[in-house]
Amino acid sequence: MRTVDQYSYRVAWSEEDREYVGTCAEFPALSWLDASPEKALAGIRKLVAGCFKDMRKAGEPVPEALSTRTFSGKFIVRVPPQLHRHLASEAAESGVSLNRLVAHKLSK
Predict the structure, then answer these.
(1) Are residues 30 and 17 in the same domain?
(2) Core-most of 4, 16, 38, 62, by most CB within 10 Å?
(3) Shared-domain flag, residues 63 and 22
(4) Other CB atoms closer than 10 Å to residue 62's CB: what's the count?
(5) What is the dihedral of CA 95, 99, 105, 107, to 10 degrees?
(6) Angle at 41 between CA 54 and CA 2, to 5 degrees
(7) Which domain holds residue 14?
(8) Whether residue 38 is found in the same domain as residue 25
(9) Is 65 helix (H, G, I), strand (E, B) or coil?
(10) What does the pLDDT profile of the chain (108 residues) look like in tens digits?
């Protein structure tokens, strides 16, 4: 069963607001501002818990936690033809597949 503890929370300083902002990746429309990072985290967790509860009560689907999702390891990226040519040449010169070259570059 999904719980709010499985969601991805982040706390960062907001120079614009001059406070810490707590966010949740699975609920991108929500945020919580507070003077301390601990209170910002507690605030966003409480806000998410309330939304989670309301969505369940209304029979709405709640977001799946990133931590529990299954990923295929495949995604498509469109690039300009010139970049595609450049990467294909680089891969050939390195003796690796284009996929391996790009995966290596992305992992850096």
Answers:
(1) yes
(2) 4
(3) yes
(4) 17
(5) -120
(6) 40
(7) 4-67
(8) yes
(9) coil
(10) 678 999 999 999 999 999 999 999 999 999 999 999 999 999 999 999 999 999 999 999 999 999 999 999 999 999 999 999 999 999 999 999 999 999 999 998
